[in-house]
Amino acid sequence: RLHLVTWNVGTASPPPDVTSLLQLDSDSPTVDMYVIGLQEVNSRITNFLSDLAFDDPWSIFFMSVLSPLGFMKLSSVRMQGLLLLVFVRHVHLPFLRDVHTHYTRTGLYGYWGNKGGVTVRMSLYGHTVCFMNCHLPAHIENTEQRLDDFEKILEMQFEGENIPSTLDHDVLFWFGDLNFRIADYGIHFVRESINNKRYSLLWDKDQLNMAKKKEPFLQDFIEGPLQFKPTYKFDRHSEVYDTSEKKRKPAWTDRILWRLKHLSRRAPKEGEITDEQTISVTLNNYISHMSYGISDHKPVTGTFMLEMKPLVSEPLVTLNPEGVWSAERDVLINYSAVPDFPSSAWDWIGLFKVTFRHVNDYVTYAWVEDDEISSNENSKQVYMSAAEIPDNGGEFLLCYYSNNLQSVVGVSQPFQIQPNRTLIGKDLTQEESSGGRNLTIEPRNEF
């Protein structure tokens, strides 16, 4: 189950709450993956440089919301105002491989990144999936420029790399502020149609719908029905369309489309599995969210069900903690890898809190070769020093990171680490000897 968000945030800071945007209050089945595409993230040069050195405020915000719910930031890519984030549940991590990112500038003849596309692609249970967040040129008269830029983005993503082209992926999701407008009709007719919820009167003059009928490279892209109000342009912090002097005509600028690659148009031979049978995409809902007013665009979400025949069903590495773990003694990790696993001296096993935010958010780690203490045909053992184990204990899990594959290829079940009783006893003694005064105990560096 995939929940995809596109939102032109108009350089604003994150809102106080995104519960409805992420459907966190929904009775629907649990989401497995969030893909969040933002446009016009604050890209002033000072902000952009600091965001390159550290996570930007929007990434930090979404990590703070989703990591307590069991999601890790799998990947992200930033190009000036464009940001794409992918979050997944821990259980899927060993089956998400070959993760790569790319970006293509189209602003100022390809020299400026205020317009263009950012992409994350991966192998998902053996199927190739690609997510492309675009911000295309504005204004009603620039339809051809939008189409040219999108075609250029399609051609340039991963060009020259040993990666399938975007259109060669089994599934391609295309979304963003695509900036297509409603042609021909005047502003009064458009607004009247919206007020009466007669959106279908406007569909035939939507520039993207019109382009899909005549442009071959668009004809395989699918979109759900536009049964929500156009999401541009609003007065900020309101549900009122543009009241400025320009009085922009409302438009469905913010869109989500997808494309399934059909590997063969011929009839399958007897017993042969076709692409249609191994992977399918179903749109469960396609809606806008009018309550968010930080920018002149409203966010749009699409919730999808991806059904697939797993081409990869076993993790490359299986690992688990040996015995009961506590901070009072060195601990052991057992792991085993599939035959022909491309291990490296730079592979490591990290200890993570169950609410970890991304792969570098480990508490401590062990090198699989340097810290190995035993090995046989079936399994290996690695140790972690007691000095590295958190004294307060809690719920943790282990992840095996492959340097060659640049991804997590094994995840343990969550387990408990027992707190250090010696330290706890010492703290209680200090508190008693202080005569009841409040003492501040500084946390160890691990925290």
From TrEMBL:
Pfam families: Exo_endo_phos2, SKICH. GO terms for molecular function: inositol bisphosphate phosphatase activity; phosphatidylinositol-3,4,5-trisphosphate 5-phosphatase activity; phosphatidylinositol-4,5-bisphosphate 5-phosphatase activity. Residues 1-312 form the Inositol polyphosphate-related phosphatase domain. GO terms for biological process: negative regulation of glycogen biosynthetic process; negative regulation of insulin receptor signaling pathway; negative regulation of phosphatidylinositol 3-kinase/protein kinase B signal transduction; phosphatidylinositol dephosphorylation. GO terms for cellular component: endoplasmic reticulum; plasma membrane; ruffle. Signal peptide: none annotated. CDD domains: INPP5c_INPP5J-like. PANTHER family: INOSITOL 5-PHOSPHATASE, INOSITOL POLYPHOSPHATE 5-PHOSPHATASE K. Belongs to the inositol 1,4,5-trisphosphate 5-phosphatase type II family. This is Inositol polyphosphate 5-phosphatase K. It comes from Chaetura pelagica.
